[in-house]
Amino acid sequence: MSENKRVSYNGLTFKPFIEASAIAQRVDDIAATMSSDYNGLRPLVICVLNGAAVFAVDMFRRLSIDAEITFIRLKSYEGTSSTGVVKQVVGLSEDIAGRDIIVVEDIIDTGTTISRLIDDLKAMNPASVKVATLLYKPEACRHDINPEYVGFTIPNKFIIGYGLDIDGLARNLPDIWVVDPQSCPDA
Ligand SMILES: O=P(O)(O)OC[C@H]1O[C@H](OP(=O)(O)OP(=O)(O)O)[C@H](O)[C@@H]1O
Ligand code: HPA
């Protein structure tokens, strides 16, 4: 991917950040580690829609152990910022008591979504809850969250692609792009 390439959405311009090949390598690494950690446990992977769909399914397909997957839908972002309120749009239908749970997120940013979800899941008495996130912004995170599986630790900049959106767009981009500060100094 040429460093000079740019894409634009909703008046913001984005520059290349993480190439699809580097993402694929990290997804492979995480799936291999997870397969070894959960061998024989038949974990339940919970994918947090919409953003995590691409990462969760890519990773799930690479697991070499028996595992199940299910989906819930949470929403807290509008445009490029968190509303601070996590809305549950679609809930969990499975009984997770006694199960080993792996929550899969595309990104932990302020940490509000994952921290609320972990609390809700723990109240349902699972055997264990761990978190896998493709992207983690420690500088932005306002909660005490220590994800067990992290694809990339990144600075506090708004990004899109590989499942991450700006107002519903750009999720289908194979690479990850970061907002170009020249187009939006605050993002
Ligand atoms: O750490 P936080 O600040 O809570 O941000 C992370 C959350 O934000 C995004 O979801 P969003 O609410 O944008 O919904 P989406 O997954 O449908 O894009 C992302 O998929 C995470 O769930
Ligand atoms: O940087 C981001 N990009 C897209 N969606 C997000 N949701 C939280 N942080 C982000």
Automatic annotation (TrEMBL):
Q: What is any one GO biological process for this UniProt entry?
A: IMP salvage
Reactions this protein catalyses: IMP + diphosphate = hypoxanthine + 5-phospho-alpha-D-ribose 1-diphosphate; GMP + diphosphate = guanine + 5-phospho-alpha-D-ribose 1-diphosphate
Which superkingdom is the protein from? Answer: Bacteria
Sample GO molecular function, one term: magnesium ion binding
Q: Which cofactor does it need?
A: Mg(2+)
**Keyword terms, alphabetized:** Cytoplasm, Glycosyltransferase, Magnesium, Metal-binding, Nucleotide-binding, Purine salvage, Transferase
Cellular component annotations (GO), alphabetically ordered: cytosol
Report if keyword Cytoplasm is assigned.
yes
Question: What NCBIfam families does this protein map onto?
Answer: HGPRTase (TIGR01203)
In the record, the note on similarity to other proteins reads: Belongs to the purine/pyrimidine phosphoribosyltransferase family.
State the protein's name: Hypoxanthine phosphoribosyltransferase
Please tell me the species this chain comes from: Paramuribaculum intestinale
Question: Gene name on record?
Answer: hpt
